[in-house]
Amino acid sequence: MDKLVIRGGVPLNGTIRVGGAKNAALPCMAACLLTDGELLLDQVPDVRDLQTTRHLLEAMGVETDAGSGRARHRVRLQAREIPNPEAAYELVKTMRASTLVLGPLLARTGRARVSLPGGCAIGARPINLHLLGLEKLGARLRQEHGYIVAEADRLRGNHYVFDRITVTGTEDVLMAAVLAEGETVLENCALEPEVVDLIELLAKMGARIEGAGTPTLRVQGVARLHGASHRIIPDRIEAGTFILAGLITGGQLTVSGLNPLHLRALLDRLQEAGARLRIGGDLVETLPGPRLRGLDITTAEYPGFATDLQAQYMALMTQAEGAAILTETIFENRFMHALELVRMGADIKIEGNRAIVRGPAPLAGAAVQASDLRASASLVLAALAAEGETIIDRIYHIDRGYERIEERLRAVGGIVRRIGRLIPQRPAGATAAS
Ligand code: EPU
Question: How many domains in the chain?
Answer without folding.
Answer: 2
